[in-house]
Amino acid sequence: MDELGGYDTALKVAKKAAGVPEGDDVKIVVYPRPKTFLESMIERRGADNSDKEAVGQTLARVLQVLQPVARQLDAAGIKAKDKIRMMF
Q: What is the rounded distance in angstroms from the CA atom of residue 14 to the CA atom of residue 79?
């Protein structure tokens, strides 16, 4: 950068460099997508596997609790209208 400024200035300079008219709206996309807490835990690498095993055991316990509840909701006719994504 040849000048100082905040986010607005950086966006203005980037648009100019990319040949995008200043008045045009742009969508900012961050790559790579930040990982969820769960993804970070599962992908941890280390000397042992204890973290991954702990996460697996915890998820198994969560599913044991949630499956009966989900079955009861389904039996009552309550269904999810959209996909639900857990974000941690």
A: 45
Whether 71 shows a pLDDT value over 60: the answer reads: yes
CA terminus-to-terminus distance, the chain: 35
Q: Decide if 37 contacts 88 (C-beta within 8 A).
A: yes
84 secondary structure, DSSP code: -
Q: CA 14, 16, 18, 23 torsion: positive or negative?
A: positive
Tokens linked to 19: 């040949």
What is residue 25's three-state secondary structure?
coil
Reported as a pLDDT band with limits 50, 70 and 90, residue 49 is low
Rounded CA-CA distance 14/9 in Å is 9
Residue 81 φ/ψ, nearest 5 degrees: -85, -30
pTM for this prediction: 0.34
pLDDT number for residue 86: 42
Q: Which two tokens stand for residue 63?
A: 């599913």
